[in-house]
Design brief:
It contains three helices and ten strands; from the N terminus they run βαβαβββαβββββ. By secondary structure, the chain is of the alpha/beta class. The protein has a five-stranded mixed β-sheet, covered by helices on one side. A five-stranded mixed β-sheet has the order 4-5-6-8-7, covered by helices on one side. The chain is globular and about 35 Å long.
Length: 155
């Protein structure tokens, strides 16, 4: 399974569409800021499954702040990251991932790509796919109970 992981689109639906066109994913994880971009992506690609969470720039109620999904035996936690102070580091986020017995916890918020392991937990941030000098996104591959995450540059 190939999953496009993006965050902080901030109105740049064209960048989301470009990444989908390039990668042809089975699923999209949108990690907040701006949830309506995920809905607009769904209008452009109605057959594409999109799972999303709200960020600090989204209105409450548009999407949950956190979501746990199990895909092919791997447990993923999706959040934006602002509630775990990721701009100051990933310690609290990793703690949350361990509490939920996740294999991987994914967040955005910092606009900077990040990938590290905390024991068996992978902590990943795709950066920003929004308007920036160097938009980035993640590709999450799940096969036979194992998950790998790589950072891709849109341009």
């Amino acid at each position: 399974m190939k999953i496009l992981v993006c965050s902080d689109s901030h109105g740049s639906v064209s960048n989301l569409c470009s990444a989908v066109e390039r990668e042809r994913p089975d699923l999209v994880f949108h990690l907040g800021d701006t949830v309506r971009d995920g809905y607009n992506l769904h209008l452009a690609c109605p057959d594409l499954r999109i799972e999303q969470v709200a960020g600090n720039c989204d209105y409450r109620g548009q999407a949950p702040l956190e979501k746990t999904l199990v895909l092919e035996g791997c447990r993923f936690v999706l959040c934006h990251g602002h509630e775990y102070y990721v701009k100051q580091g990933y310690r609290y986020l990793a703690q949350r991932g361990r509490e939920l017995q996740a294999d991987m916890i994914l967040c955005g918020h910092t606009h900077r790509p990040y990938r590290d392991t905390y024991g068996s937990l992978q902590v990943c941030n795709p950066g920003t796919i929004g308007v920036s000098p160097n938009p980035t996104y993640g590709i999450l591959t799940v096969e036979q109970g194992a998950a790998t995450f790589t950072i891709q540059h849109l341009s």
